[in-house]
Specification:
single chain, Serine Threonine Protein Phosphatase 5, Tetratricopeptide repeat, 2 domains, 0% strand
């Protein structure tokens, strides 16, 4: 890969991280014009299109990514979500099934069910350590769990929060950003990332994460509380749902 292409991908990823999806998309398209065989760039450009309200175009990009790499689990998942958004529910179910099949192939030395059990067992031990105040031991267990199933984003979020408790803000940021790369809709990880930024003194970056959290989950109590603490506008809570019957 030439230097210019590397710089474009890096700049696009940075724009994606700060949620400037139009700028990111422009860079990714420049990359794909010269290198149409990069499945990860097709995937990222498709996610940008999805966030920009263009699900049909996003679906085309995801199809291109999967044509290049049929084992791309994240692309299968985002394709399923996009199909569901378009109301193509039968195709969405098939896409979720293909994502599961691809994930099973990616499970490593153990079978998919066993690796999932081991990962969750390590995570449960990590939770116990955390409850007992043994944060470093919890981190070790979460890392072992992710060694089994690296795409278990709930466990990676726990790792990020534990690292935050240790004061290792740089590593916490890496883990939480990785979580959001795998699942941009994971609100708990976004709230946690906002806390990392706030602890580092990057207040505006923290506010952006919490506002983005409320855009996805308007009633999230943590994001609402953190914004209120800073004196920032907090959208009104959703009205209570009427009781059935």
């Amino acid at each position: 890969m030439d230097l210019q292409t590397e710089q474009l991908i890096t700049r696009g990823r940075q724009a994606f991280q700060r949620r400037d999806y139009a700028a990111a998309l422009a860079d990714f398209r420049d990359v794909l014009a010269a290198h149409p065989d990069f499945p990860d760039v097709w995937h990222l450009s498709a996610v940008c299109l999805s966030f920009l309200g263009q699900p049909e175009a996003a679906l085309e990009g995801l199809d291109r990514a999967l044509k290049l790499n049929d084992g791309y689990v994240e692309a299968h998942l985002n394709r399923a979500l996009t199909l569901n958004e378009l109301g193509r529910y039968d195709e969405a179910r098939d896409a979720f099934e293909r994502a599961w099949q691809a994930e099973r192939k990616d499970a490593g030395a153990f079978s998919a069910p066993l690796s999932a059990l081991l990962a969750n067992a390590h995570a449960a031990v990590g939770d116990l350590y955390l409850q007992g105040g043994a944060v470093r031991e919890a981190v070790e267990q979460y890392r072992l769990a992710l060694g089994m199933r690296p795409r278990f984003v709930d466990i990676r979020n726990k790792l990020g929060r534990a690292l935050f408790q240790l004061g290792d803000l740089a590593e916490a940021e890496i883990e939480l950003k990785t979580t959001l790369q795998d699942n941009p809709r994971f609100v708990a990880a976004r709230v946690s990332l906002g806390l990392v930024y706030y602890r580092r003194g990057a207040t505006e970056a923290a506010v952006r994460e919490w506002e983005e959290s409320l855009a996805s989950a308007p009633d999230n109590p943590q994001a609402r509380a953190f914004l209120a603490m800073l004196g920032r506008p907090v959208p009104p809570a959703a009205p209570p749902r009427p009781l059935d019957g």
